[in-house]
């Protein structure tokens, strides 16, 4: 069972998934920082306070008289459309930033592919089987002596 577990862990796709999750978590922090620390302050300065609609709600009960959403939820049922609007705007900003990042990465990949096609980058080494056959050929040349009759 231990050997099967080692084989499972050593598979390329399991390791790729683990790396993807770790990179995704780090990337999530970067994107959150871009949105919260770079984009939202600019949006807040342009709109005079930002896009915080979280306290916008419609009371669904006559008992609800509070002015904040948290207090209103304690008093009764509310239709909290402001939270949805805030999350939707944050999502659109986040999606735009991710789109720009992916677009930049795609441009970088296209540049690397172009360099490969034009020969600017170092050529890739031959596959392992070709390298092995080349080594065998070279060893046979060295070890083969002409036989005398």
Automatic annotation (TrEMBL):
The superkingdom listed in its UniProt entry is Bacteria
Q: Keywords on this record?
A: Cell inner membrane, Cell membrane, Ion channel, Ion transport, Membrane, Transmembrane, Transmembrane helix, Transport
Q: Where in the cell is it found?
A: Cell inner membrane; Cell membrane
What Gene3D superfamilies would the database entry show?
Large-conductance mechanosensitive channel, MscL, domain 1 (1.10.1200.120)
| Membrane topology field | Multi-pass membrane protein
For this UniProt entry, which segments traverse the membrane?
Answer: 12-31, 78-102
Just give the chief location class.
membrane
What is the purpose of this protein? Channel that opens in response to stretch forces in the membrane lipid bilayer. May participate in the regulation of osmotic pressure changes within the cell.
Q: What is known about its subunit structure?
A: Homopentamer.
User: Which family would the database say this protein is a member of?
Assistant: Belongs to the MscL family.
Can you say what this protein is called?
A: Large-conductance mechanosensitive channel
Organism of provenance: Xaviernesmea rhizosphaerae
Which gene is the coding source of this polypeptide chain? mscL
